[in-house]
Amino acid sequence: MNNQYSVIVVGGGIVGLTIALSIQQRGTDVLLLDKNQIGSGASFGNAGHIATEQVFPVADPSVLKSIPSMLLDPLGALRIDWRYILPLTPWLLKLLGNMRHKPFMHIHRALSMLNGASLGAWQEFSQQWQLQDLIKIQGSLLVAEKPKTLEKLRQHGDYLNRLGVKNQLLDQSQLLSREPELAENQLGGLFYPDTGHVVELAELHQRLERTFVQLGGKVLTECEVTAINSSSASQAYVTTSQGIFVADKVVIAGGAFSKSLVKMVSRINVPLETERGYHLMLPKEKGRLSVPVSSMDRRFIMTPMNGGLRLAGTVEYAGLKRPPNMQRAQHFLPLANPMLKRSLDSQHNSEWMGFRPTISDSLPVIDQKGPYVFAFGHQHLGLTHAAITADIVNNMIHGQPTPIDCSPFSIKRFL
């Protein structure tokens, strides 16, 4: 294999993969590296929801009163492993600082801008690469089963509509007409028309990788990066378990593992932590729902896919090294069953745990410095932001203006 490329992309998740394909499509030669397999991390196990409606930071002040339960309930929607408290504390303090009104609203506006550009970017990307059978822009639902929750949803929907995030409040009859399999304890919900979902994540990754290779791109898997350094602003060296490679530009898109990669090229200590996410895949439940359904009361999501119904969500802070607690995956069943008219068929289910990359201010890093381009830290919105991030990075690489203002996503904010 050639050891010299115009661009090396480190990280083969959905963000790195869309970036690599977008750059290669312009005729710029790209090497895509991943320490495991392409699309095997959070990109494989996420909820498949293109969640443009999620325009608020990961945490808000209401979370504070839940901290005791986070420590005591191993199956709670938001869980902190007490053994991980000490290494988590610096990040957690920064997270708390970002709950103050001024930074909270700055984050909210930046996410609103990025999400506002995300759906159109996905639609263009989907059309360009003929992915319409995999990417469905059919909306999603956020439902409530308590009168108090439904009123909160109404207020939330009113605010989002004023912001330009379209939604419609459905009463119970409208909700059950749209999704007849939901039980009558679901009192209503918000329908978001400008959201979507992916019905086959693995197939999406395979097609994009195949197209990338057909265009001349090179892929190296099981390839761990051990060092990155540069001799000038226009050349960098990437040392890996499979050799040393040289590039004009190196894109760091390593998801939850990006913090250590950034340390190789900069003194900046990015406040990035991993949120461990879980899913339970039910292959016997094809066709139960037509669009993703999230529960505001139960704090998880059900996404219909070609391979069945995916139950996902919840957050666990326990770092990158502790073994998964698969009880959290199985706990989705007792969460979901009361929401449905018929109990779910859990035969032949499969469990998964993976790492979401979350920065303390809930915003990604999309920036460039010398020969390095950064594209990581998209928290729960990696799939949502993948296509617009690819557009931004592609323009950065080729010296063109970015489609949106990227100043809120600068790595310099951590200096």
From TrEMBL:
Keywords linked to the UniProt accession = Oxidoreductase
Tell me what this protein is called: FAD dependent oxidoreductase
Domain FAD dependent oxidoreductase, which positions? Answer: 7-393
Gene Ontology cellular component terms for the protein in this record: cytoplasm
InterPro entries of this UniProt entry?
Answer: FAD-dep_OxRdtase, FAD/NAD-bd_sf
* Lineage top rank: taxon: Bacteria
Show the Gene3D superfamilies listed in the entry.
D-Amino Acid Oxidase, subunit A, domain 2, FAD/NAD(P)-binding domain
Q: What Gene Ontology molecular-function terms does this entry list? A: oxidoreductase activity
